[in-house]
Amino acid sequence: MAAAMAGATRLSYNHNLTPEWARQEVSTGTTIMAVEFDGGVVMGADSRTTTGAYIANRVTDKLTQIHDQIFCCRSGSAADTQAIADAVTYQLGFHSIELDEAPLVQTAANLFKEMCYKYREELMAGIIVAGWDKRRGGQVYTVPMGGMMVRQPFSIGGSGSSYIYGFVDSSYKRGMSKEECLQFTANALSLAMERDGSSGGVVRLAAISESGVERRVILGNQLPKFASC
Amino acid sequence: MPLSSEPSWLNCEVSTGTTIMAVEFEGGVVIGSDSRVSAGQSVVNRVMNKLSRLHDNVYCALSGSAADAQAVADIVDYQLDLHSIAMGRLPLVRSAANMVKDISYKYKEELVAHLIVAGWDKRSGGQVFGTLGGLLIRHPFAVGGSGSTYIYGYVDATYRPGMSKEDCLQFTTNALSLAMGRDGSSGGVVYLVSITEKGTEEKVVLGNNLPQFFDE
């Protein structure tokens, strides 16, 4: 490309008046996570949104409510994930009114999957769907880029997740309590935020169970610290 | 459509996909690696020892292009031999790391290799040096290779200063196993070398003896 430009005659003034960062796509760099426990789920995310190297929002809420007891964690393009979440929220709301019942988490996950698979070439979205329903209790479904959907006991996603595969593989145990899951999630997210430039800020947590949704924020100075820092 | 009927891996560069790691403890170092060498999608060597001896008291771990890494290690092996004969004593770990760094920096554009240098000397005890991109930096522990991204969280959370040699061996084995479980370019067996004042001790942990972690 540089060679072609050098050969072309300068007929117009080529200076771009928009700064570099304003021309970058807004991305939720991110680390997201969700863990099942007996009776519900715990979901967590960092709070950084970047446009190139600029942090457009350092207190983003990446845990988006889809229905009363169903949430999703968003990673990838901020625009794409917001658009998909809005569409699914509408579809699920409509479905729930028709059924006259709370929707299943699997239904929400399926709606995400349908959209992410159909428009897979155009979209850049990695989503984790989690919540509680009467039929199966707490469930976590992951819908990564490409549009597959699978249920997992816990799931991690986003650019920062690469750094914590080893940590979660070694620390996860079946049958953890809600408090243990919250601690596990906070630890994993802190470690990822420490290593991934696109993740940072605060840790947002949500615990969903039969009784409802409980949201928490862990501020920067209260994050768990590790010896090697 | 490719005209050649030979398998694609014959045309791919041989790379030590890899996970390598070195940890310092009071009195020495532990250095470890996996054993997989891949050419594209094919595993061309499943038992390669990526821990290369630079001198009796200094080893290095190879990652990146297998050819580049081996070439650098061979050159430094030779240079250290001359150096230690001229000085009449064992080389310093820092000298070995410096030599690796000089080559990595001078040929930075041509080479695709990262060597972690670790060893023991009388002046400063156990030391681990990273030489990524041609810099020279001492760490209490270092990880490298494609598989290392997956274990940054684990090593950050688990490392504590003041571990014993056995703790370090277990820490390294665990970290390498976790990386091998997630990185397609790392696998096989775990090679470990511990270097102390008394000398070097080599160990292999075979596949069936590797620690098991959550697997889903």
From TrEMBL, chain A:
The reaction(s) this protein catalyses: Cleavage of peptide bonds with very broad specificity
Any Pfam family the entry gives: Proteasome
Signal sequence segment: none
Any one GO MF annotation of this record: threonine-type endopeptidase activity
Location of the active site: T30
Key words of the record: Cytoplasm, Hydrolase, Nucleus, Protease, Proteasome, Threonine protease, Zymogen
InterPro entries: Ntn_hydrolases_N, Pept_T1A_subB, Proteasome_bsu_CS, Proteasome_sua/b, Proteasome_suB-type
GO biological process terms on file: proteolysis involved in protein catabolic process
One GO CC annotation: nucleus
Function according to Swiss-Prot or TrEMBL: The proteasome is a multicatalytic proteinase complex which is characterized by its ability to cleave peptides with Arg, Phe, Tyr, Leu, and Glu adjacent to the leaving group at neutral or slightly basic pH. The proteasome has an ATP-dependent proteolytic activity. This subunit is involved in antigen processing to generate class I binding peptides. Component of the proteasome, a multicatalytic proteinase complex which is characterized by its ability to cleave peptides with Arg, Phe, Tyr, Leu, and Glu adjacent to the leaving group at neutral or slightly basic pH. The proteasome has an ATP-dependent proteolytic activity.
Quaternary structure and interacting proteins, as annotated: Component of the proteasome complex.
The name this protein goes by in its record: Proteasome subunit beta
Organism of derivation: Acipenser ruthenus
Origin organism lineage: Eukaryota, Metazoa, Chordata, Craniata, Vertebrata
